[in-house]
Amino acid sequence: MTTEASPRQITIGGDLRVSRVGYGAMKLTGDQVWGPYPDHDQAIRVLRGVVEAGISLIDTADVYGPHDNELLIKEALHPYPEGLVIATKGGFVRGGFDYSTLDAVGNPNYLRQSAHMSARRLGVSQIDLYYLHSGRATDAPFEDQVGVLAELRQAGLIRHVGLSNVTLAQLRVAQSVVPVAAVTALYNVTARPGADLRAAAQEDGLVFSPWHPVTTTDGPLAARAAEVLSPIAAAHGASVRQVALAWQLQGSPQALPIPGTTSLAHLRENLEAQSIALSPEEMRAIDDIPESSERGHDPLARSRPAG
C-alpha cells in the first residue's frame, strides 16, 4: 500500500494560495551568484516557462547578483500574472566575487532600505513575502531586525514576514514580535540542519521552504543516499532527484520546496515528482539515511518479512 501523492497547493500566511513546488531563482545569476546569468535570453525563457508550467511562487533575494536576479524577474514577468507570488530577502551583502565577502547586516536603516529597493527593482508596491535573510548579523539586536520587518508589514510594504537561516530560538523570538508566515533553511536527504525549524513550522502551521531540496550528492551521507534512493527511483520509474523531492513533499504538509534550475526539462521533471507516491516503508528508509549510514544495515530491512 502506498501513501497518496502530495497536494498540489499550499497557503502562505492564511491568504496566499500557491503551487506546492516553487522555483528558486538563484541559479539565474553568474558564477558564484555574482553578476547576471550569462545567457540572458535563456534566463528569460526559463522564468516565463516557470509561470507557464503553473508554478506560482518564485523565490529570490537582493544579494543574488546582487540585484541582477530581482531585475531579471521584473524584466521577464512584469506586469505579473494574477496569483504569482514573489518572495525576496534582505540582510546579506557581497563585497565582490569571492564568497568570503558575503556578510550579514542587521542595521535597521539598511534593512528598511533593502526592502524598499527590492520592491522598486521588482516593480511592486507590496512584497508578498519578505525574508530576513540571516540570523547571523551582530551589528543590531535580532529583535530590532525583526522589528523593522514588523514596521514595514504594518506600513504595507511587506505582506508577510519570513525568516531565513535562523535558529529555532530566533524563530521563537521573532514570533513574539511579528506574525511569521514562512521559514527557509537547508534541508534535504543528505543535509538536515533545518530539521528543528521544519518541525516547528509543522507544529505552528508555517510554511517551511527547504533550499537545495533535491541535493543528494553532498557530504558524507551521499554514498548511503545513493544506495537507498536508487532502487526506490527504479521502482517508480523516476530519477533520484524526483524521489528526493517527493520525499520532501510527503514528509511534511507544510513543505514548499524551491528547487532551482536553468533547464526547462528539469523544471518539468521537478513538477512530475508531485505524482510520485512513496510508500511508508520508502519514506522511512529515506528518513533513516543518517541512522542507517551509522548502523551500516539495509534501510529497507524492516519492511521485509523475517527469514
Brief rundown of the structure:
With 307 residues, the protein is of the alpha/beta class. The chain has helices at residues 40-52, 68-77, 108-122, 142-155, 168-175, 195-204, 222-236, 240-251, 264-272, 280-287, 289-295, and strands at residues 9-12, 16-19, 23-24, 57-59, 85-90, 92-93, 103-104, 127-132, 158-164, 180-186, 207-211.
Any key phrases for this structure?
TIM Barrel, globular, disordered C terminus, 11 helices, two-stranded antiparallel sheet, seven-stranded parallel β-sheet
Which structural class best describes the helix and strand composition?
alpha/beta
Number of separate domains? 1
What is the CA-based Rg, rounded? 19 Å
CATH topology: TIM Barrel
Share of residues in strands:
15-25%
Q: What global shape is seen?
A: globular
Spans of 5+ residues with little confidence (pLDDT < 50)?
A: 294-307
- Tell me about the largest β-sheet: 7 strands, parallel
CATH top level class name: Alpha Beta
Distance between the termini: 22 Å
The beta-strand count equals 11
Residue share in helix = 25-40%
Mean pLDDT: 93
How are the strands ordered across the major sheet? 3-4-5-8-9-10-11
CATH architecture assignment: Alpha-Beta Barrel
